[in-house]
């Protein structure tokens, strides 16, 4: 009996001893794995820091004197990023673009910044109009050109008539500001031409007759009725004002400089302020709605003067000077 009791006690003790040995063995094994993994993580972390320092050093070398350059690093080639650095590289490029934009804007006098913002606004829609992208940022935008004596060939009486009519319209239609004005050749529904003064205010677009003391022709077109504009991809000063009444306004501005971008920019700003939808079309061949019939305007450059003529079918030929 004593022998069997001793064997049973021995077996119970062995199970406890084996459990303790297994526990410490597993613990030792896991500690070795953990130490190996932590060593690998430390090596990886050190290598990542090394790669980051190397890449940042390349950027520092490439952009060292960028603040003193004329283009603020626009033409500098960025170092090729490592596979894991692509998100960081994109973030750094975004930061550089914002810094470069800030530096460019800081060069512009404060009184010219609102006009510069307008030019950037128009550039979003006129990217296909190469003449605008090439010349607009060097031009001086004056807005209400008909308030300037040189637009009237220094004839003071014409200037006084224009100001008088606009003051009367300001009281009658209750607009607050004249945004843009210019002399133009307007095409009517019979494809005939009339000399007009086109005036854009913060509420209406007017057509005035400069030969009759700037007498207003019909009523102003409310901006709410205007659904968009169409201009050409070339240097032509042609603008088509699309209306919800399906009777578009077509005119060609009298100017040696490109004023299309200025008209478009002010129109976009007004429509955005009104939260009203609109479209800007930049096309080689501009379409127009006349008496609910759609027609295509074909540009023929090289003429001596501006001339609209009926073409084949429903087309309209515009001869425009270069």
From TrEMBL:
One Pfam family named in its UniProt record: Myosin_TH1
Give the InterPro entries listed for this entry.
Myosin_TH1
Q: Where do the TM regions start and end?
A: none
Gene3D superfamilies per record: 1.20.5.190
Q: Where is the TH1 domain?
A: 129-321
Q: Name one GO cellular component term.
A: myosin complex
**UniProt-recorded Gene Ontology molecular function terms:** cytoskeletal motor activity
The name this protein goes by in its record:
TH1 domain-containing protein
List the source organism: Didymodactylos carnosus
């Amino acid at each position: 009996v004593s022998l069997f009791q001793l064997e049973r006690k021995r077996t119970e003790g062995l199970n406890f001893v084996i459990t303790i040995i297994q526990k410490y063995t597993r613990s030792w094994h896991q500690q070795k794995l953990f130490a190996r993994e932590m060593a690998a993580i430390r090596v990886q972390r050190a290598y990542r820091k090394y790669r980051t320092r190397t890449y940042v050093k390349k950027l520092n070398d490439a952009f060292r004197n960028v603040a003193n350059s004329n283009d603020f690093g626009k033409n500098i080639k960025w170092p090729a990023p490592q596979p894991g650095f692509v998100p960081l590289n994109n973030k750094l490029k975004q930061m550089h673009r914002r810094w470069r934009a800030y530096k460019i804007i800081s060069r512009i006098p404060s009184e010219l910044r609102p006009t510069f913002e307008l030019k950037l606004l128009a550039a979003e829609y006129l990217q296909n109009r190469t003449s605008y992208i090439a010349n607009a940022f060097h031009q001086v935008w004056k807005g209400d050109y008909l308030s300037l004596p040189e637009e009237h060939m220094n004839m003071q009486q014409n200037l006084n008539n224009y100001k008088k009519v606009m003051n009367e319209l300001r009281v009658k239609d209750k607009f607050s500001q004249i945004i843009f004005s210019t002399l133009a050749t307007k095409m009517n529904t019979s494809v005939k031409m009339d000399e007009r003064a086109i005036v854009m205010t913060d509420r209406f677009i007017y057509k005035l007759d400069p030969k009759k003391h700037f007498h207003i022709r019909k009523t102003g077109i409310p901006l709410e009725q205007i659904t968009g504009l169409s201009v050409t991809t070339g240097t032509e000063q042609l603008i088509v004002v699309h209306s919800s009444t399906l009777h578009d306004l077509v005119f060609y501005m009298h100017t040696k400089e490109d004023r299309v971008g200025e008209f478009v920019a002010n129109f976009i700003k007004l429509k955005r302020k009104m939260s009203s939808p609109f479209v800007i079309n930049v096309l080689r061949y501009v379409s127009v709605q006349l008496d609910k019939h759609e027609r295509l305007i074909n540009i023929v450059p090289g003429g001596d003067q501006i001339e609209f003529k009926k073409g084949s079918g429903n087309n309209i030929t515009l001869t425009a000077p270069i």
